[in-house]
Every structure is written in structure tokens, then in C-alpha cells.
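hey so i finally got around to running the thing on that chain from the lab meeting. sorry it took forever, my laptop kept dying and i had to restart like 3 times. anyway pasting the input first so we r on the same page abt which one it is
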Amino acid sequence: MATCNVYTIQSLNSSTCSISTSTNTHLGFHQKQLLFYTTSNTTTMRGCSGGGGNSITCSADGRTVVIGLAADSGCGKSTFMRRLTSVFGGGAEPPKGGNPDSNTLISDTTTVICLDDYHSLDRTGRKKKGVTALDPRANDFDLMYEQVKALKDGIAVDKPIYNHVTGLLDPPELIKPPKILVIEGLHPMYDKRVRDLLDFSIYLDISNEVKFAWKIQRDMAERGHSLESIKASIGARKPDFDAYIDPQKQYADAVIEVLPTQLIPDDNEGKILRVRLIMKEGVEYFTPVYLFDEGSTISWIPCGRKLTCSYPGIKFFYGPDAYFSHEVSVLEMDGQFDRLDELIYVESHLSSISTKFYGEVTQQMLKHADFPGSNNGTGLFQTIIGMKIRDLYEQIVATKAAAPSKAKKF
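ok and heres what got predicted. didnt touch it at all, straight out
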């Protein structure tokens, strides 16, 4: 049975609605008949979603904006998502009343989908076939494309759930079209069809040394894995990571690259990080962040009276570069903050960070001071990218609102 909501929208020149007669499929319904019509002035809109019967979907204020975030397992995607949803306001929670092992996070503005849900093989099936979760053969890209496209077009879907606890594929959950859909996981840019649906894409590029340290911390502390099993897992995954995951960074609009510090010669501890924000030039609705003077090459050591820095200090860099034949701007931070409240000194020297008010980046960092990476460039750049995505979304919405409405009847 479908569930319908009725909305009344005032002062719209027109809206376009579609009515479909449907049967159950993996999308929740399959469109057999479509009727498009337009109305003017006051518009009554009915938005339906469900697992069968008739459904009505309407579009008046534009499509869902789709963001893709790619990274290997254990590289900080979950923390990034919490920072991103916080920028938009409100906490992100699993679907109410649904599967407690759901990977989906929903807030007032955003819905975050974990692409592990599109595994076509469960843990036992992958073991029998001798493939890892990174292998395209273990994932259903047709379903991924169809459901992301449906959500972008304003149509609800019944999305599968991969249960990370049991390693099984659980029954699907209903996902309704949000204002912003974030698809995060191993393969958001692997399939060209899915890649072409993205309005903006990010790749978290963690060096092998840092990735190993992070994975040990997460899997040993949170999941109870032994050091030997973690080493074996990393070794087994690396060929597939190099073949299928890492190449996606060439398509990303922004890359956050996490490397060992250069401030300590031959550093082996990995506690101090050098983080680079690589921003592609010429991306619609996105202007790269810059330090001091746009287009210049800047090296800046801010430590002193206005920024407390213990050994080995902090160093920033900004300048133009090339990345997979693309022109990019690079903002880099090496080192870590001693006091987050002093971050506002650094923030005041950054431009095009898309804040709503002076000190917003610092406020967000202080709000989530307990998040991993809050004292270094990972947290800083994730927060800034969150604000850039907010700005991108607002620009897209404003552009669509300003575009002349053309009523058509088919």
C-alpha cells in the first residue's frame, strides 16, 4: 500500500507532476503509465511512495542534489558525514522504526546512503567466490544506478541493507527523496552512469601508513579484531583497492589527501599529519578556497602570538597545481592545533570558504572537538568542504528558482 502526503504550495507559476501505475520491483515500483500535467498559481501536490499500487511523484522546487564520497574502508567517511550533516543543522539518525542495523542516516536536509548496501554477495558468498567487497563482481551497479537516479528524480525506492554485523543482506528499507542525497562508500565514481548523476564528488585519499594506523585503531578498539587479522585484511584488499577504488580520485571535484608529516624528519609515529585539499578548477557552483591571495603560491607559518603551537609547529601552503591533467588549487596544512579556539586566526586568512558568518568554521570545529581529526587538517578541510557543499546546494536551488518555468502537457 502506498503512503501519500498532500501539500499546498502558494505562488508557484507552475509545477510538473507524474502519475505512475506500478508493480513491485527493486525500485519499489515500476512505471508502466505516465501522465504529465501542469497547474498554475496555487498548486496542490501529492507525493506518494511505497511498495506497490499507484504512486504520484511531483517536482516543484527542483531535483535532489547528489553528492558522492569515495574512500576505502576505515578512512573516516563516517566522521566526514557527521561533520557534513552538522553544517546543514540537525543530527543525522537511522530511519525511525526501521532496521536497527541500517547504514542510512537521515536529517532534515540530508540522507546518507552507504553503498555497501549494494553488495550483491553477502560475506559468505564473497568467500565462496574468492572476491572482496571492493571487486565490482560483488556489487550491483545496475541497481545502484537505478535507485540513485530515481531518488534524484524525486521517486522513493526500496533500498537493500547490507548488515555489517551478520554479513548478510537484510530486507530493504524505504528511502524517500531528500534535498541532498549523499552516497558514500567504495564505488560512488566507479560506474560512469552513477558518476554522471553526481552534482559534486569527493575522494578521501589516505596514505598507506596513515590508513594502517587508523584501521588498527578502529578495528581493534571498536570491532575486536586482532592485529594479525587486520594485517591480513589489508593485504588481501590492496590489489582490489589499487585496481578499483584508488583510480576514482581522478574524477573527484575535491580530494582530501592525508599524508605523514614533513615537519618531523623520518617520523614513524604517524600522530602528526600533513593534509592537502586538492580542488578542481572550473567546477560548476564551486569556487576553490584560497589563502591570502587567489592564484598565488603561499607558504605560511602562523605560529606565534596569535596561534599557540607546540613542537613541531604548523605550516600552511597554497598554490596552483595539476592533478590527473586537471588544473587544481591546493591548500595544505601540516601539523596540529593546540587550541581550537585560536583557529579563528587561521580562518580569518582563508577566503571563499562559504561561511554564513565570521568564525563559523571555528564554531563547527569546537562543536565537534571530540571527533577524530579535529586538531588537524582532516577536520578543518572536511568542515570547509561541508560548507562548500551547502553553498553549492543553495546555488543550484536558486538557479532553478530563477529559471523561467515552462508549462508543458504531453
